[in-house]
Input
Amino acid sequence: MHEISLAEGILAIIERQRREGDFGCVKSVQLEIGQLAGVEVEALLFGMKAVFRDTVADGAEIELISVGGQAFCFDCESQVPLAKRGEACPGCGGYRLHVNDGDQMRVKSLEVE
Amino acid sequence: MCTVCGCAEGNVKIEGEHGHSHDHQGQGHSHGHEHDHDHHHPHPRPAGSKVIHKTVHRYQHQGDVHHHYHFHVASVEQAQQLMADPTQHSQPHSQPHSHPHSHLDAHQHEHAHQPEHQSAPAESATLDFDALLAEEFEPEEYDGELDYGQGPAHAHAPGMSQQKMVQVEMDILGANDALADANRARFDNDCLLVLNLVSSPGSGKTTLLTTTVDELKEDYSLAVIEGDQETANDAERIRATGVPAVQVNTGKGCHLDAAMVGRAADQLDLEEAGILFIENVGNLVCPAEFDLGEDHKIAILSVTEGEDKPLKYPDMFAASDVMLITKTDLLPYVEFDVEACIANARQVNPEIEVFQLSSTTGEGMEEWLAWVAKQVPVCA
Output
């Protein structure tokens, strides 16, 4: 449900960049979305399509850079990959995990004209 | 449109506000921009969890024919390797392939995709892609040619303006997070404890809250912000206890955001050394992502729900510091495994504190109230 809000946030970032930089329209948007970001990518893409209509980013291509989840396991004291919150440490099967990467949602760059 | 929430303009109603404040913070709009050229340029991406999508573009002009070598790489090292020897690589889209094409008409190729850096202040706790990319933006020289590897090279149409990459590096929820930080600074300054209560609809948040404020109102200055899509019923229930409350109706919005809480707080007379409770919209999904400036998120789960809810909605329980298992007076009548529920919650959040209570019988309320009291800041 909140993906529309996220799409709004992306548009706000684009419009702010446009005020600061000199460009006409946005050809593509590079997004960095972590595996643990709690965002439904399909819904986000749909939301962006709707929100970008009749704006400077109308029709922009969306490139998703996905970042895998990472956590530190306090049981085996090692850095491990984590695909989903609530899953066990792939190393030792423990659950004392502290997520330290892969929960980001960022606009990385814009390709503009 | 409010800062980050997708709810439509005019949908948000905050009790006590006169008129609708609609602040664009000096932000201009751009509407009605159309362009009719298609720019589709799909490229398969190498598999792997962390993918740096780069197109390395090499070109040679020999009279009217030129060759493009382009390939996709997963790392900077690999890109450098490939540029050193374009015949050796094993990615999908692999063999350097040439696109010889002749041009009968004279036209210019603008191949220099010199990126322009417009670094917005980015505080990234994540990987430092900035440095990585900045380094990559330097042209590579080989065979006497310069290569600007970054950026899709596809502006071939003569007379078309050159494209450029603008580095942004901004969190999508950055606007909300900045407002939440402002709220937090303000609440700290007022010496307030702020608790954000989250749960699915019908878990008994409001009942728990009325019982809680009833118990605490003698000892602390209290205030409540109530979030619901519609109606002021919940705020009225709180006000019936004598505690000031302001209702925020989010309209179609599925969560409270920091801007709404800031505006709602303006309506409350918040005294120092007090507690502000925020009852979020009943929803176990979206409110997890939106920082309101609170000290703690408190997840409420009633025994009439399932003990697997922490696993079904892990983001919310991962974001919360406390889980309250409520309606425990109904335990004899429902199939709810308390121990399994706690184990599930600790699976997604090993540090989560758990209290079991019943607002109806008062059982377990004491421990919860003691925890709240312990969190109230002591200010000079």
User: Anything to note?
Assistant: DSSP finds two helices and six strands in chain A.
